Amino acid sequence: MKRLIKNATLVDARGNHGKADVLIGEGRILSLSGGDADEAIEADGLMLAPGFFDPHAHLREPGQEVKEDLESGLKAAAKGGYTGVVAMPNTTPPIDTPEAVQALYKRARAIPGARLYVSAALTQGQEGARLTEAGLLKAAGAVLLTDDGHTNEDGGLLALGLRYAASYGLPVAVHAENAGLRRNGVMNEGPVSERLGLPGNPAVAETARIARDLEILRYVQQALEPTGHTPRLHVQHLSTARGLELIRAAKADGLPVTTEVTPHHLTLTDAVLEGMDPIYKVAPPLRTQADVEALIQGLEDGTIDGIGTDHAPHTLAEKEQDLLRAPFGIPNLEVAFPLLFTELVLKRGLKLEVLIARFTDGPRRALGLEPIHLEEGAPADLVLFAPNAERPVDPAHFVSKAKFSPWSGWKLAGWPVATLVEGQVVWRAEA
Ligand code: DOR
């Protein structure tokens, strides 16, 4: 079966390529200049881009299906324009064996939605005491090792983990917070937390941990040099201007480090917590406007490789507890692109192809995956979005089980209208 996407404006990480008729078949882009098809999708006024890739989402399976499951998560991702999403392993139990990795891939095969990529725990049970089997996890299809949701307090174990992961070509992702400095903080430490009398989580919890991890990376890189293996460190959900500076310097120094930023750390500050609404409670916490400005700059100049959503669904009952008790996390797979398209491209003049690059090539490369561009022969993992139609965020219509959002009511443009994986339509907006 062949499909023709007609009159779409093509944009990928390399730029805006103007209008074209894109012929798709056998899961690939067959032509950018039309051709005979069994079905046509009229896309006049719409933009066509490579499908988005999320290196960081919590899909909660196994064990936390009351918050989200593979089906709701992969469909929510497709609705958000994602064709690939990396599921985090802080499930119940944590994903730390090859069997658990394989079971998720098997389940996902029956679900029409974004493609699933599984990350596995770096340490057994994510307990930070004993490493998992990097080689077996890689053979089972794990794309990344991480104890995300937990901090890697034992630097020696992280060094060893980076070494083993490197020998199997796997990156290690870190939730870079120092547990001692973070303590029981529920929001950014600063004037707002002081005024509210709430325990603060200071920026230094993140920056001290990033500084340590970069030094560990340097050490492992040197140790592995004779073997030809390269350790790869991915710093998750960067939230501070100082953390960005450290990563910028490390990159300039040739360290194999990559990083990501979330939609919330690019659009919200700790000022939103004045009303003590736990909907804004997230780890790491929302910071200051100066941090937001620095992160936007880092996204623009490429120090930040890509957007990682850290989509973290919880039940409404959990999130409606008071700020001290509610769990950390913000669901955002369905709003990430329109939010950043509106706030960064339309309002602040960020180049569209830069935003697209951070939703596609950047995070793919960070995980060692090939970039996808709009060219003949490329996989037909695509998103069509509407750059001009504005609509408010309405979490009641989320496909995700977590039907709440800090951006509820925000008027956004850039909503995806169709998502294709391997040439198949996995999500389409109702006309
Ligand atoms: O806010 C967060 N929620 N940050 C994390 O690192 C974990 C996540 C979760 O699993 O809910």
TrEMBL record:
Residue sites binding Zn(2+) 1 per the record: H56, H58, D148, D310
Cofactor detail note: Binds 2 Zn(2+) ions per subunit.
InterPro entries noted in UniProt: DHOase, DHOase/Allantoinase_Hydrolase, DHOase_cat, Dihydroorotase_CS, Metal-dep_hydrolase_composite, Metal_Hydrolase
Domain Dihydroorotase catalytic residues, every copy: 47-214
Keyword Glycosyltransferase: no
A molecular-function term among this protein's GO annotations: dihydroorotase activity
Binding site for substrate: H58, L59, R60, N90, H314, F328, G329
Cofactor: Zn(2+)
Family: Belongs to the metallo-dependent hydrolases superfamily. DHOase family. Class I DHOase subfamily.
Protein name as annotated: Dihydroorotase
Organism: Marinithermus hydrothermalis (strain DSM 14884 / JCM 11576 / T1)
Source species taxonomy: Bacteria, Thermotogati, Deinococcota, Deinococci, Thermales
Catalyzed reaction equations: (S)-dihydroorotate + H2O = N-carbamoyl-L-aspartate + H(+)
Gene Ontology BP, a term: 'de novo' UMP biosynthetic process
Binding annotation for Zn(2+) 2: D148, H175, H237
PANTHER family xrefs: ALLANTOINASE
EC number(s) stated in the UniProt entry for this protein: 3.5.2.3
GO cellular component terms, semicolon-separated: cytoplasm
Pathway: Pyrimidine metabolism; UMP biosynthesis via de novo pathway; (S)-dihydroorotate from bicarbonate: step 3/3
